[in-house]
User: Fold these one by one.
Assistant:
Number 1:
Amino acid sequence: MSWQAALLLKQQISLLDYLQGQGWKPARQSTGGRLMGLCPLHCDHHPSFLVDPNRNLFYCYGCGRGGDVIRLAELYHGVRFADALAVLRHWSGLGSLLPDVANFYQMQLHRHGEAVAYLLQRGLHQAEVIEELRIGYAPGRCLRAWLTSLGYSLETLQQAGLVNPEGHDSYSHRIVFPLDGNLYGRSTGAATPHRFLPGSKGGLYAWEKVRECPEIILVEGMFDLAVLWQAGYRNVTCSLGSHLNAPQFRQLCADNGKRRTVYLALDSDANGSGQTAARRLSQRLRAQGITTRRVELPNGHDPNSFFVGGGNAHEFQCLLERACL
Ligand SMILES: [Zn+2]
């Protein structure tokens, strides 16, 4: 991409829109229409991040970093200039597209018995939870035609990763969860279990809803989160994998990180790899002053299989109370 194209992209993308798309919120107004908020680039406890929407620039009084939207993307995602451009181009192209995709897949869910059967098999039966998570179903072979009828070009759909180079829907026979700037698809069959669109998986799921909670339960998978919601636990967030990316780790540390207890309810693998991952994460969070508790699920279980296997809210509560430091 040429410098001219980079310049154009910089003018097209509002820094404020991009920040808000990543879950950033201004804490207060400053002079000249400028905004102050917590810095998304370091573990900030008092708003020290200044955004000037008119000049499309930022500066942090805490970590001393500043610049334009491309610089922000470089620092935020920890990538080089060329990759930051790719991330931004991808993000700007997804603006209206992802909500259209999510709506379409949501409409498909109840038209396909196999999708509802899969949800039941994973212990998900509450209509309100399914609705609130905007769970959908990608049957395959129909998204491309639908989006084309809405006016999206094939090129746009391929760039977003929704249609593969052969021209077929990328998501097929998958339960779909819309994320912030991405789309998670869980295979109901033998295909690769997990699929995301190219680009970042984004921050922690529904972080805005839990960030004020003094106790937060962190899980790896969306089906873990869904059954916990059903069981009445709303202080749950999900990292979509056992590895936290840099923005997710910063979210756990930011704001009132030091007043927060994080319950790590990660998968308990028979070979112990999940437990090792939880111990490492626990150490990294403690180094930031955060209290952590490791929830010990029965061997070979994750929160989803715990509930599917007959576990109930009371038994899960006992696990939380027994969780070790
Ligand atoms: Zn900073």
Number 2:
Amino acid sequence: MTNQQISPPPRDFLCPITREIMQNPVLLIEDGRSYELYALQRWLRDHNSSPMTNKPLRDRRFVHNYNLKSAIEEYNAQLETLSLANRFLSFNIRSGRIPSEWNNKPTLKIRLSLLGGSNVGKTTLARYLQYGVQSSFVHLNTSATVGPDLVFFYLDQLFENKYVMIIQLSDIPGMERYESCCDNHFRNCHGALLLSDSTEIDSLERTELYWYKQLQIKGKEYVEAILVCNKIDLFEANCDAKYRRIFFQRAEHFASTHNMPIYHISALRGDNIQSMFKQLILRILQNNALLQHIKETNLVHEQTLNNKDSVRRTSSIQLSAQPSASSIQNDDDDDRTSSGDCCKFA
Ligand SMILES: Nc1nc2c(ncn2[C@@H]2O[C@H](COP(=O)(O)OP(=O)(O)OP(=O)(O)O)[C@@H](O)[C@H]2O)c(=O)[nH]1
Ligand SMILES: [Mg+2]
């Protein structure tokens, strides 16, 4: 999603007297020009001429110009949508507590999965996203992940000016013996970061032949994915020019064949991580089919919650049309294996 330019308003939308976009355009019958109602009335109090031509007026009558009014209203609506979209582009990804003033806002949850073989750096990346480079957690040696871990983030701006956006990131085990427990994470994710270790060309091959294939077979048809080549710090320091050239070529080929962006990152140093994560979220929000699906499943989920509630409680029930921000916990049946943190409200 690039920052979209807002084109200047057509000249006909501007009142010749005020030079501003009109709200109530009226057509002065004699000169055939449209003016803002209040400005023309004021003009006609003091003058007996056309504001445009300055020629004397024999007929001072004017009528509402409804066609022009609705064209201006449409233009204003487009302007509002564009400016909302452009404002949203500057979001930041945060972990921790969601501002309490968003408690009753509807939420949309985006599910992302970290996919890739063992040792490619999935857990290190999840830790970096959660704690940042300063944290000793990032530099702590990780042991192999044995069950899916969930990490939650939120975007610091409301999407479409109303939705709290929650990002659920699944860090799943890369070891082959745990593959069977990952099916849900292929099936349910809206976006995937396909990781490989840049210093191990075999890991790139496995990412393509196993992880990407599984995502294609089991995942949603319109899932968004990014190819992530990790450990760029080691790649730059230790790999010779020939290896680097071959690796780049294969990675480019893989990414372009499947129409994916490619990022070279260091999960340990933090290189390119924020921009990669943001890019994936933007691609998802730009994907109309996916966005529609996310909105619908959140709506269904909230209705299910409300139905369960109504059985449990006979007292007053609060129904909301969308899931509210206060209902984001590990609420998906599929995610019950999680031991991850949750976003909490301040
Ligand atoms: N130098 C360097 N080391 C990294 C980087 N990312 C991860 N590592 C190291 O690679 C090793 C494996 O990282 P993990 O994050 O545990 O790998 P994983 O993909 O989660 O592995 P599984 O849990 O077995 O699937 C750890 O020793 C990390 O410190 C990186 O960008 N640069
Ligand atoms: Mg791990």
